[in-house]
Batch of 3 targets.
Target 1
Amino acid sequence: MKKIHVHIKNDRRQDYPIFIGVGLLEKINSLIGITKYSKAVIVTDRNIPSSLVQNLQSALPIENSIVVLDSGEQNKDLDNVKEVWKILKDQGFDRKSLVINLGGGVIGDIGGFAASTFMRGIDFLQIPTTLLAQADASVGGKVGINFLGIKNLIGTFQQPIAVIIDVNTLSTLPQREFISGFAEIIKHGLIADEKYFKSVTAKKPQDFSQEELIEIIEKSCQIKVQFVSQDEKEGGRRKLLNFGHTIGHAVEALSQKTNHPLLHGETISIGMIVEGKISNLLDLLSDEEYKRLEQAIIHAGLPTETSGIKVHEILEKIKSDKKNEKGNTNWTLLKGIGKAIYNQKVEDLIVRKVL
């Protein structure tokens, strides 16, 4: 089992562990010490196999219940948060209760946001079951929901008490979901570590062994922790993690209205193609480096383009991006493979041309 220590430098001096290994669901009490809580609720969705939920319930030594939500980005909304709040209220949860999020990034966001706002905040535990959530979304303390068609417009910064990553859960993932998770993994290499970028693109995602996946997840978590621990609320270096996300979030929101909605990782891969090309046109990224980026995404089986979305719709969505300041879009761009820069201004003409 791998263990990463997270130390968040904020006024609360938060510390918590990330556990990565095999068969960790059954060991939850020895890892966390669940008996200090009055009761627990497991927040999950309809795609999670009942066997995983039952295994987790059996391992909990305290009174617990389950909330099963509809899956998918389109359900990351206030209605589902209200459903969690109602269960917490109706079942007499108090400030010594625990919310356990078992699922992908959507569940982690909904459950984490519900916990961070119920009674002004109760503890929550992240147990991510998708590769994307294990390598990225469950780490860092961003929780929230989509609102008025804008991704993650409403949310909080609230760290979990721990993250438990059981790679056995990946065996339940459809291949498309699994490959989608590699977009964030590739991004981590592109923004922070060229050697890591080479290693995670050396094979197709499905060709890595379980042992190799554990090493990959550990390294991705370490990269994200480096940024988050120094800059919890995205005032500076944490913005580097946004590479691919300005375009990606716009495409993701718009794709939900089409007949073929894209997964988060798929939209981020398209975002990296666009934002990588912008970097190239601004002479930050060489032609050869951009080609490496493009080939890595293609080799992974991730999309580089989409259809059914108009350029002006993407440009309009970008204007509502929560990372904007004083009406200006702050772009994170690449300055070579393994190095990124943030708060970059880009002319609309260039963005439109690349789109």
Target 2
Amino acid sequence: MPGSSITERRKAEHILIGVGERVETGKTTLFEDVDFIHNPLTELSLDDIELSTLFLGKRLAAPVVVSGMTGGTRLAARINRAIGEAVEELGLAMGVGSQRAALEDDGLEYTYRVAREAAPTAPIIANIGASQLVAGLSRDDVYRIVEMVDADALALHLNPLQEAVQPEGEADYRGLLGRLRWLVEVSPVPVIVKETGAGFSREAALALRDIGVAGVDVGGAGGTSFAVIEAIRAERSGLGEEAEAAWTFSDWGIPTAASIVEVRGVLSEVTLIATGGLRSGLDAAKALRLGADLAGYALPVIRAAYRGGAESVKGLLSRYIHELRIAMYLTGSRDIGALREAPIVVRGRLREWLEWRGLRVS
């Protein structure tokens, strides 16, 4: 199909720009404004730390998920397989990127299916975009998306910023909440709503309260900016005005640390995933302390998979898990529940944000 070739080419461009260019926003996650109080009398062994947690009815070795990033190209298949092998061995979870390309061309299904082949027991999150949902996604499409990767959940990704600045974007979300309610009703697996780099607000979280979503991935600002990626794509295509518009919004969004508190304050029961600029296990510890259930990583993982395959991904994720364990040890936190009660100091811009918005960390 003509549409599928365009989508496939765009997916490849996103990968190559992401691994080869500086694509992170100038805005920070604000995790730097969260300090744990060091406990020199921890009375624990580092080996005592219990990291396991439940996610989608499955036991994870650590509260870590590799965020859905790619699919729809031969290169993406290699990356998804590498990530799948790593999360299967480490006992973690992963998502795949938007499966729109496979809906347009079933010859691209394998680029997503390889994740399940490489990770037969890991929780896997399928993925489709809000633009496709409002454009008329069918019940059969939903089932096909889920079955393609034998998914444990389905992520609906929200990327209004990217759609607005992308030269071929589909910036039309009319009727989204009604369609989301329909998706929750027809999906054979739990639905997770996922932002892609601009964050989630308290107001947006409130709009989800009665819809029945199982989880929210805040996808906050501070990591990859798809406005930057689209600006680079536009520049390479000689689309000067489109590139300038994209650069204007390159720092747009709610910082990840603030977004966690925004959402957790009004949605206490849903699974909350923190993605958007996490670059260490200490970032994961801070995200969990602020209210997240899982810490998610994207750009560093796709770069590791591209450059070094499954072994590189395993090394990176193992380092993050080790750093999370150290942070818990140094705060006297035997398990994730104890970490959520560890004393912290919130200062700087994050404190200003929370005070201005009338928010408090639990």
Target 3
Amino acid sequence: MAPSSSKVLDRLRSAGLGSWDAVLVAALVITIVMASALVPNFATSRNWAFLLLDLIPVALIALPLTLVVITGEIDLSVASMLGLSSAVLGQLWGSSWPMPLAVVASVLLGAALGAFNGTFVTVFGLPSLAVTIGTLALYRGLAFVVLGDRAVADFPFSWSTDAVRAIPGTHIPWFVLVVVALAVVFGIVLHATPVGRGLYAAGNNAEAARFSGVSVNRMKFWLFVVTGAVSALAGVFWTFRYASARADNGSGLELSVIAAVLLGGVSIFGGRGTILGVLAGVLLLGSLRNALQLADVSADTLTVVTGALLIISVVAPNVVQIVRDRLRRSRSPSPISSEIPSA
């Protein structure tokens, strides 16, 4: 490797960027520059405001889901928890509950739904994939039980407008600050605390982590609880943004969230990933979809693109890691050859 390339990598690592994180940031910059030059209206402040509003639910759910996937688990029911929490919020408001109390109850419901998932995974030892596929359907069905096909749309105007209000002097929605605050919290927990080291250990080898004193099951249980609560918070935001509580709110959103998490470099097998990489993945995926929508690309094509990125996100980081390992081995001297004396 050239000395200049080595210095660049060292600077990226010192800034907290891994190799895949650096690739994502570079891809994000290239995507924004090309879309700004080629797609009309992409670079306008109005479009970026709508883009950020679209990404807020994805980013919110992606943060706790990152920690879940790092431990080697998965939660496919996140969008259904969003929908059920939205439906319950609409039902409680329609039943004359005070709005602050209805919001708190909806978030607490999300935590309870996450605890239900976590109990089956950690207490009964069932695979999280199977459990959350089941609750994906269960929670969505319960949302239709609560609201049916009707929509609740008579929310207070102040709540609906405040949810999408911009930071004064900018076009940036103020709820982005909530995402940033949660990203800082999850980032500190994952990268700067013993809890984070335990998460990585559990993802790499759960048995070894237990022998090291990590309470793997307890940790995973609370991760599912937090994921449920944050998914419900995303449901509250979704409801107020569109001023409509519906049972089908957020349908299919789990695909975008999982694609962003895996595209962000989180290994589907656990043990690897960063919060920064996931945020870059969210922005990259959202920017691509937004640019394609502005270019009048069909919804079916957008689904194909998302699916393709999901596959790439699973394969590419592992390919990069394999290449790096081989390059490292090729640069290191062979232990056999080092023992052979020179003639």
